[in-house]
Design brief:
Blueprint: H1 2-26, E1 28-37, E2 43-54, E3 60-71, E4 74-86, E5 90-101, H2 107-115, E6 118-130, E7 135-147
């Protein structure tokens, strides 16, 4: 009897981990929108809307996401998000804001911003909770978009 209970517990645990792994693997991250705000003489604000999509029947819980942002292949900053969830079969948008000082960015980035035409690339890692939020796993991601 004890062996049967242990076998059932092990099976349920394995099934939970597998279901969480499938949900994490099927989730998608994309750049939904990029907009320039407050373009000034020495800096501008870049607002990036990132869409996290969960097409599975399991809720996802994100502990954190950290990422580096590149424009025209030049590093322009780092940002992060923390503690949000993506309900089953839904999407969640998160907006990050970066203040770009023209003196700190490459000339090609400045040209792209002033001409309002540039490629943006975001590379990072999300920490997602699994197995009833007892454990976290790291999921690397990279996304890109063109602003014009």
């Amino acid at each position: 009897m004890t062996g049967l209970v242990i076998a059932i517990l092990v099976t349920v645990t394995i099934l939970q981990f597998m279901a969480d792994a499938v949900a994490v693997n099927e989730s998608k991250i994309s750049v939904e929108n990029v907009r320039l705000a407050d373009i000034g003489l020495i800096s501008c604000d870049l607002m990036v809307t990132i869409n996290f999509t969960n097409p599975t029947n399991r809720d996802l819980s994100i502990a954190s996401a950290t990422f580096d942002v590149f424009i025209a292949d030049s590093y322009v900053g780092k940002s992060s998000l923390s503690h949000f969830s993506i309900p089953r079969n839904s999407s969640r948008e998160q907006v990050i804001s970066l203040t770009l000082l023209y003196s700190d960015i490459a000339y090609v980035v400045f040209e792209g911003i002033t001409n309002r035409n540039f490629d943006i690339y975001i590379s990072g890692e999300a920490q997602m909770y699994v197995f009833y939020e007892l454990f976290t796993i790291s999921v690397p991601f990279s996304i890109s978009s063109t602003y014009s």
